[in-house]
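input
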Amino acid sequence: MAETKSSKDKPIIVWFRRDLRLNDNPALHRAVKSGKPVIALYIYETDLSRKAGGATDWWLYHSLASLAGNLKNVGLTLHLRKGIAAHELDALVSATRADHIVWNRRYKKGERDRDAKIKSSLQDSGVAVETFRANLLSEPWEIETKSGSGYYKVFTPYWRAAKSQFEIADPIPAPKSVTAFKRLSGGMSLDSLELLPSKPDWGAKMQPFWQPGEAGAATSLDEFLDGPVADYPDARDRPDQDGTSRLSPHLAFGEISPRQIWDACRDNEAVANKFLAEIGWREFSYVLLFHNPGLESKNFKADFDKFEWADDESSLRAWQKGLTGYPFVDAGMRQLWQTGWQHNRVRMVTASFLIKHLLIDWRKGETWFHDTLVDADPASNAASWQWVAGSGADASPYFRIFNPFTQGEKFDPNGDYVRKYVPELSKLPKKYIHRPWEAPPHILAQANVKLGETYPKPIVDHKQARERALSAYKKSRS
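output
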């Protein structure tokens, strides 16, 4: 879209959302290329279809601070607002006479519909609007089955087709300098958005684990590709080792793009193949989200609507607090609460425990993760919970029930992960660290463990819980 001379003095607005970066940001690149003075805008939207979780807001605060600093280095001020996006944009256009707005797309139905209405309204008032793909390798509607039956519902053929169709351009470099629109007042301070927790400040405990922002994303990628990626196919399943990239929150906030990750792996794609497949799972999750509105609350497979879930608030709270009596599960839930993140192998085990050992509705687990994960992603979180439940596309069958102590023995063989997050069991020998209820009394006494007092007894018996889950599943199918 060409800019006329008469429009060059009017500003162009870059509306940042979950694309909090300067590198490989198509909307920002378009704004700079226009030659118009630029307004960098972030709106904390109060009318989204789902309120952000507490951990998400904590990360957002630090990510916005990082973005503001990066923008300042190229000559821009990050203008902050809070409220209904349509109203805030209209007010900003009116105050600045901006005639062009650019943003990067999002894919959840509620946000898509809202963006479409905003775009139509702005265009009706004479404002040009352009939108871009920035946070996916392909649009969710682009990869279709060869049979013409629509989108893929199984990951493996999807990823095979996607890789054969991808046309991945080089990432766009960050601008070195930008002409800013100077005649702008108002806006809000970052602190006034009230994103940080207080009374208590539980976010402080997460600070040592993370570096939110674009620089932190680049560091995480570099450190991962400098070593751990070589052992990723095996190490990715070991929560007792530092074998994953920890890029998920950076991707969730758009501090790095999948295209940047793909580009960084080009020179060693064979080694990074398994890692890139995880990027593929993220892409596939967005395909499911796009084609299935309400993925976070509606069973993908309708026959699961008949499933009779247990109404057990006491067990739900025990799971949330990491007090189930199963050390590997409890370590995972405490890791989540302390760091805002949980190892992917452990996510499968903790989710399976809630759904199948406790018979608690997967939606309650999805909601808890939505609130407590710093990488809470609308597509990945919902699709993953449905995968474990057996209610989703390409799902793990319901009768696949993770054994919480054999999983621990396999993937945390020395008990280091449990000892880190369940310190009351730290003195137990590895033979009993995942099954403290089997330890002889003198071993428990030497480790200062009193089951039922210093550490809970299992809230359910594994064998009985498994049989109950299979019976409930069979009943729902009849």
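quick obs: The chain has a mean pLDDT of 95.
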